[in-house]
Amino acid sequence: MTYAPTDLLDIRRWLLVTLDLAADAIGIVGDPDHVATGGYHEGNDDLNRVGRLLSDYSKRESSRDRPGSNAASAIDIGYFEHRRPDGSVVTLRSLSVALVERCKAGDPRCADIREVIYSPDGKRVLRWDRLGIRESGDSSHLTHTHISLFRDSEGRRADARNLLGLLRTLIEGDDMGAFDELLRDPTGRQPGPGKAADLLWIAAWNISDTLAAVRTNNAGEVARDAAFRAAFDSFAKAVTGSAGGTIDTAPILARIDAVAAAESAAMGKALAELAAMRAELASSRQEAERLRERLAAALAPPASG
Q1: Using CA atoms, how far apart are residues 140 and 34, in angstroms rounded to an integer?
Q2: Reported pTM
Q3: What phi and psi values does residue 72 have, to the nearest 5 degrees?
Q4: What are phi and psi for residue 90, nearest 5 degrees?
Q5: What digits encode the pLDDT tens for the residues 1-38?
Q6: d(Cα 250, Cα 256) in Å, to the nearest integer?
Q7: Average of per-residue pLDDT across 265-280
Q8: CB burial of residue 273 (10 Å; 0-12, 13-18, 19+)
Q9: Shortest CA distance to 145 belongs to which of 171, 178, 165?
Q10: DSSP-derived 3-state class of residue 78
Q11: CA dist., res. 113 & res. 234, Å (int)
């Protein structure tokens, strides 16, 4: 019998509470109709029962879906309108569009997402497929968004640096909340090299996103740059302190200052540089691994003797 794994249940619980939705607005395990058609809402046993274990697209198109388990590996989000504390409103449609944009851009928190089936306007159904195989879905997705996750990601999708952390960012506008969660360790220990690498990797995306938003409106630009610099200064101090004071944030801060200064004299050039930065981030996952290695060496205790 297909079951809902703990990580997807945690995401479901957070969505229900945050968005104040009825229990049936967020689905994980497929109903009987889903079993006949297969897909990520079904686990191995139910797919096998209907003769689809080897042939279903959710099993055969990616090695990440094999062998899998009896857990469902998808979540459906029903329609909602959510007002943030700052008065802005996020809806299912705006969330879905933003989620797909992050997937396309290569946000590391999207790495386990196989596909998103959604409607940007309540009239068309679109599908973003990481494997580039499909582009559409059925009309039920006019009123709900479907997110499939590779089956080998079971257990980690409620982490701050995975799907739940990304949903927090897109729904609450709370990147700093995700940073805070990454910094916390229930044992009281300092975060290891992996956590520090994730912090800087996500910070790089949020720096570029924030600078891009600042550039869209010249009114009050200087004040917003100053506010952003102050916020990042505070964050940088938190990261540096949590890593034992070994992370040099000066180059990052210097780059922020340089880009902000260049804006007033050469806006076009600054925008081109920002685009190049984002393209490089999206295409160089290997660089992230090299960053992990450098941070591990930097945070390692000094050799005795």
Answers
A1: 13
A2: 0.63
A3: -70, 155
A4: -115, 135
A5: 999 999 999 999 999 999 999 999 999 998 877 777 89
A6: 10
A7: 63
A8: middle
A9: 171
A10: strand
A11: 32
